[in-house]
Specification:
Radius of gyration: 21 Å
Order of helices and strands: HHHHHHHHHHHHHHEHHE
Largest sheet: 2 strands, antiparallel
Bound molecules: iron/sulfur cluster
Helix content: 55-70%
Number of strands: 2
Strand content: under 5%
Shape: globular
Distance between the termini: 32 Å
Strand order of the largest sheet: 1-2
Structural class: mainly alpha
Number of domains: 2
């Protein structure tokens, strides 16, 4: 591989590293002994800065915030507006270049193992999983938020019945919530008790540990597996991505096609069938996270980044 073939990967890795350190409250606090209390008003409206865990926030990231507000009966116009604008102008750049969970998965995928592809039909079915999670969560928490305004008694009973899901709707479905909020707390407990018992206190605690461990192992062989199939934030941004002004396109003149080449599809970590997509623009049904691997790897310079 030449430097030209890494011309986007190298700056992306640098941006990912810087982002990983600087948007993580836990890491900032741990490494630089910072106290970010003075940033509280800013952090509250820009939850990117609150990811992963921030004691100033109610969750680990953007999706966590959105769902939390809906459960509280407040429609998050501002947050949703910010998110739509971000995706309209930068597509899923955040996912490819900034998200700490994406960075962790890219790190895992860097292990020198043979990367695998999921069968096309299975891949398509699995892609729907993240949308199902979001729809299911909305079906549960929209009534919770609505009854907070209309029927307090029912709301309280429903909230008690939902337990943790009411307090943090995305909690069980978010890898960032697990890795940066839940897991460190559990390790802290283990450290204090000097035994591994906290892992086995509740069935759900162990199941979540085993589940996310499997997700991380799978990401070694299937790059960005969590982003593709499970991430609730990925589902929300993928739904907006097709309307973004920033997109990739493929030149019908320069591209020589799958039989002659097909390199772009082979290097795509999201397993997007680029060559089945329209020439004018492709997002792989919103799955593309603008890692630009296809662009830098194309030997015929057929892939371009376009705005407008
Ligand atoms: S790598 Fe470039 S030339 Fe090859 S199939 Fe993809 S877009 Fe076409
Ligand atoms: S289509 Fe290209 S930019 Fe998008 S995820 Fe695949 S390799 Fe990355």
């Amino acid at each position: 591989m030449t430097l030209k073939e890494h011309r986007y990967t190298i700056p992306r890795r640098i941006v990912q590293f810087i982002s990983f350190v600087f948007i993580n409250y836990v890491i900032l606090e741990f490494i630089f002994l910072l106290n970010l209390k003075s940033f509280e008003p800013f952090v509250k409206v820009l939850p990117i800065l609150a990811a992963p865990e921030n004691p100033l926030s109610k969750g680990a990231g953007f999706a966590e915030f959105l769902f939390y507000f809906i459960a509280e009966g407040e429609f998050p116009f501002l947050l949703l507006g910010i998110l739509i604008l971000i995706v309209l102008f930068s597509n899923r750049f955040f996912c490819g270049w900034i998200c700490p969970i994406g960075t962790i998965q890219d790190g895992l995928a860097a292990f020198p193992t043979q990367k695998k592809k999921v069968g096309i039909e299975t891949h398509k079915t699995l892609l729907s999983l993240k949308y199902l999670i979001v729809i299911l969560l909305l079906l549960i928490i929209v009534p919770l938020g609505f009854t907070k305004i209309t029927d307090k008694d029912f709301h309280n009973d429903y909230k008690n019945a939902l337990g943790d899901i009411a307090r943090n709707p995305v909690g069980y479905f978010s890898l960032s919530e697990y890795l940066f909020v839940f897991f460190p707390k559990m390790v802290e407990e283990m450290w204090e008790q000097e035994k591994i018992d906290p892992l086995f206190t509740e069935f759900t605690v162990f199941v979540m540990f085993a589940f996310y461990l499997i997700v991380l192992i799978v990401a070694v062989y299937y790059p960005r597996a969590y982003c593709r199939y499970l991430c609730p934030f990925g589902a929300i941004t993928a739904a907006i991505s097709d309307y973004s002004f920033l997109k990739l396109s493929r030149s019908p003149v320069r591209c020589v096609g799958r039989a002659e080449c097909g390199i772009c599809e082979r290097v795509c970590p999201k397993q997007i069938r680029i060559l089945d997509e329209p020439f004018e623009f492709f997002t792989g049904n919103g799955e593309c996270n603008l890692c630009l691997k296809c662009l830098e790897s194309c030997p015929y310079n057929a892939v371009e980044l376009r705005f407008g």
